[in-house]
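Recap quiz, item 2
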Amino acid sequence: MTTAAAPTHARRPDPMTPVPHRVIERRRETHDTVTLRLAPTGSALPPFRPGQFTMLLAPGVGEVPISVSGDPTATDGVLEQTIRVVGAVTRALTGTPVGGVVGARGPYGTEWDVPSARGGDLVLVGGGCGLAPLRPALLEALAHRAHYRRVVAVLGARDPENLVFADQMARWRRRADVEVHVTVDRAGPDWPGRVDLVTAPLAETALEPARTVALLCGPEVMIRRCAALLLDRGVPATRVRVSLERNMKCGIGHCGHCQLGPLLLCRDGPVVPYSAAAPQLAVREL
Amino acid sequence: MTDRVAVIDHSALVELVGLLHAEGYVVVGPTLRENAIVLAELDDGDDLVSGWGVDTEAGRYRVVRRADDAVFAHSAGPQSWKSFLHPARRRLLSTDTSDGDLTVEPEPEPSRRMAFLGVRPCDLVAIGVLDRVLAGGRYPDPGYTARRDGVLVIVANCTEPGATCFCVSMGGGPRAPAGFDLALTERVDDAGHRFLVEVGSAAGEELLAALPHRAATDADLRVADDDLADAAEHMGRAMPEVDLRALLVDSRESPHWAEVASRCLACGNCTMVCPTCFCTTTEEVTDLTGEHGERWQRWSSCFDLDFSYLHGGEVRTSRQSRYRQWMTHKLSTWYDQFGSSGCVGCGRCIVWCPVGIDITEEAASLTALASREVGT
């Protein structure tokens, strides 16, 4: 019997079903942040683009959205995810030992669109754990370095103990073709680096504003201040991109939790042009 | 071939339920339970409510005995078809880590087809809204599509809208123009108790052919047209005739939200009864070993404090921000996200609000405040 009223949808794999992965490496970044390298035990997830996230499942505990922090040019199907302990699920995920299993779905959401900066300057500003989704963007730019003019990374944290990717940062700083500024909000006397907000080096960096693409990720207050500064310097709001975060239960636009005004951040974000984000970030408790 | 428009009597309607059962459908329709008209699975046609109407107002719902035995002379009850297409609670999957590997077993989707008997035009629009949200994007929800695909829709056009109804001002109306297998328009008068039946699909045509019926006369058609035109003129409520989508975005910082919040209990009733509110959360359940887990999905509400929880705290801590989120989403940002309004004008949120907050009144207040602002 056929009906006119009812639609018929093609059967597809369940987007809510996590794909099993095994932890093959566990790197402690800071006292509360760990990077896991996850190898699929069966078929791998589709390749990710810098800025996208996955839903990671700690079996029996729960599922949370986590940005992919790995190398987008790698083809081994291994997921690299940097996770800060903020609750029960992230505690279980970061506590998963090498050989342990987790689930992953995705990748989901919008990307930084690093190639759109080709021919111009690329600026990345990351605060704290906000470096995690920026790392793939930087790795992608460095893999195609000749396409970009200046590549500038401004990386900050509350204090030296909260800086992630320390080894990698040291390597980036030795390169002549990328300008790396590392600052911390506060530090003891043994910190040899700069003590400042990330806005300070950002204000000093040589840029050609009209040909700059800036990618920002970190606390919302940092994002707002850095964006304001870049706009002040003449970077168009459409070329400033920010990665935003809200509660997510599904990652695929069905649970409603990640709304920020008109945006469903799992679908229309996490990477959003500042021109679209600014009106939403200006309203309290939106 | 049968006629595209016919007339059946009450006994044929009862017979229709048996016919649908014989076709293998789970039949869901309005029944009287605990002083409310609720949608429930029908064992037979006699389970259908008969001779009851409703009296609704903001914060008030009463069933009322009617002088006749009309089946569909009542406006929206506490439930909607959402309960059957997007259940309040369902298991998504089971996990097992007992052998050191992770095995994920998705929940099998239901395979029994449902027939919805007595779908109101507003609720038919609401099903279309849910279709766009849960099945229209890049990742259709397989639980939703498994339930939705093959649903047989029998509309009951509204001849007696309630005091809290405002479908007309949301662009709908008491008559469903399309999207059904059969559409019924009920009439009880000296000439008897009967239903004008419009056929909307081949399946509907086959059903009608199997029922005792007669061809509709011009007089039958005229009576139904008049009754439904009359119903459209008798909506108990109306939204202000302004661009609601713009109004809500422009009213983000309105002082009116604080005033609503002084009455709102943040109980979430409006979101539970709303036929389009789709938000869910997930819960994990494990056995004592922790090796066998289940993920459950259940409805959640943007009025819950932890709905917006982000590490470190909630985004929407104040009640006014949560009411603003709900109403703005419903009337405005829904367009941005899913291409239509999220409100169909069924009036359930008004009826089931324990303090009688009325979305049409709040929209009117925001309109008045906005025009005052423009005036100064």
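Chain B has two domains: 5-232, 244-375.
The mean pLDDT of chain B is 95.
End of item.
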